[in-house]
Amino acid sequence: MFLLLPPLPLSLRLCGETKTKTTFLIYFLYLPNVTSLYSLALNFLKKLKSFFFTSFELKRVFFFFFLTMLSNAVVLAAVLCLVVLSPFAAGIRTGPGRITANEDGGRNEFSKLGPFMEAPEYRNGKECASSSANRESFDPSLVHIAMTLDSEYLRGSLAAVHSVLRHASCPENVFFHFIAAEFDSASPRVLSQLVRSTFPSLSFKVYIFREDTVINLISTSIRQALENPLNYARNYLGDILDRSVDRVIYLDSDVIVVDDITKLWNTTLTGTRVIGAPEYCQANFTQYFTSNFWSDPALPGQISGRTPCYFNTGVMVMDMVRWREGNYREKLEKWMQLQKKKRIYDLGSLPPFLLVFGGNVEAIDHRWNQHGLGGDNLRGSCRSLHPGPVSLLHWSGKGKPWVRLDEKRGCPLDHLWEPYDLYNKHKIERAKDQSLVGFASLSELADDSSFL
C-alpha cells in the first residue's frame, strides 16, 4: 500500500484542484482491492517459487506485476475524474460569502485583472419573496442568469451584473451562473474571487468549462473572436448547470440591462418552444449560409417551410427541462460536425441555433435586445438605437464600449454603458477629467449620471 501513494499527486494534477476530495475517495475505494490482490499474488508466487522460479526471477516477475497494478490505479483515478465524473464542467464556488484575493495564493494573478471597485449593495424591498437558505435549490423566487466569464471580457461582465442588480426589483433573488474557460489566462478561481470582491453579497456559482468538449467541433469564422470555445458554452448549459435549474436567462457579456430583469424572466414559452428571444422575421437566410449549403440537394429542405426569422443568441430565455429532454445539445453538435466536413456557414455559433430553432422561437419584445451597438464589423462605425422603448442594450459586433471609451473614441451610446463600469482606474481618470474628484463613491457618481 505504501508504494501506491506516489501516483496520487499526479492524479490530483490530472483532475484539477476542484476534484481533490473526489480523487482521494477513488484512491481509498481502490486501495483495498489493490492490496488484496497484492497479498494474493504474493502467496501464489511463493507457492510457485519451488517449481518454476529462482529467487531472482520471482522478484522480477513480482516487480512487473506490481508495476501493472500501479499503472491501473493511476489510469482508473484519471479516467473516472476526467471522463465519468465531470464531462462538461465543474463548479468551484457558490455565494454569498466574502473571500480575499490572497485566499489561494492568487494575489498577483488577481491584481493583473485591474482595479475594480466594490459595487453598491442592492437589497430586496419588502414586497420581494424571500428565497430559501439553499440558494442553489429550486426556488420559484430565484431568477437564474447564465453568463460566460473570462479575463478579456471581464469588465463587460461585471458591468452587466451591476446593471441587472441596479434595476432588479428583487436583486437578492437573482442567482448568477458564470461559465469560465478552463485555460483562461486568469484561472477560474481567481475570476471567482474578483467577482466576490466586487459583489460581496452576490449569489453565484462559477463552472469551469472543459474546452476539449467543443474544441474539435469549432471551425474557422469570419472573426477570430467567434472561434473562442467559450462562445459555445451556451450549447452545453443543459449539461453544465445543476439539474435543479429548470429555466435560465442567457446573457452575453457585452450587455447592460436598464429594466427589471424579472419582466424578461416571466416570459411564457408557449407550446413546446424551448427558447424565447427577440425575433427579426423576413430575414434573408442566404447571408447566413454558404453556397455549399444551398447547393446541397438535402440541406435547404431542413429549413424549408419555416418562417425565416433571425434571432440573436446573446439574449435568450431557455427552458432547460425541454432542452435536456429534446437533446438539443446533440442537435447543435450535428450541425457543427457537418460544418467541419463541408463549410456551410461563416458566422461562428449562431448558424447552428438558426438551423435548430429558426421559426420556432417564442418572440420577445425587441426592447430586450437592442443589438448591433458594437458597430459595423468592417468599418467600425457607430450605430443608433432601433425605434421603440429599450430594456437591454447589446454591443454585439466588433466594437466594445470599454475599449472605445478608453481610447477616447467612444460612440454616443457607449456613454450609456459607462455608469455601470466598475473599473476603478477608469472611474478615477474620468472623475479627474470632469473635475468630479469631490464625489466620494461610485454610488454618488452613478446617482449623478443620467441614463435610460
Automatic annotation (TrEMBL):
One of its GO terms (molecular function) is glycosyltransferase activity. Its EC number is 2.4.1.-. Keywords: Cell wall biogenesis/degradation, Glycoprotein, Glycosyltransferase, Membrane, Signal-anchor, Transferase, Transmembrane, Transmembrane helix. Pfam families: Glyco_transf_8. Its main location: membrane. One of its GO terms (cellular component) is Golgi apparatus. InterPro entries: Glyco_trans_8, Glycosyltrans_8_dom-fam, Nucleotide-diphossugar_trans. Pathway: Glycan metabolism; pectin biosynthesis. Belongs to the glycosyltransferase 8 family. PANTHER family: GLYCOSYLTRANSFERASE 8 DOMAIN-CONTAINING PROTEIN (PTHR13778), HEXOSYLTRANSFERASE (PTHR13778:SF61). This is Hexosyltransferase.
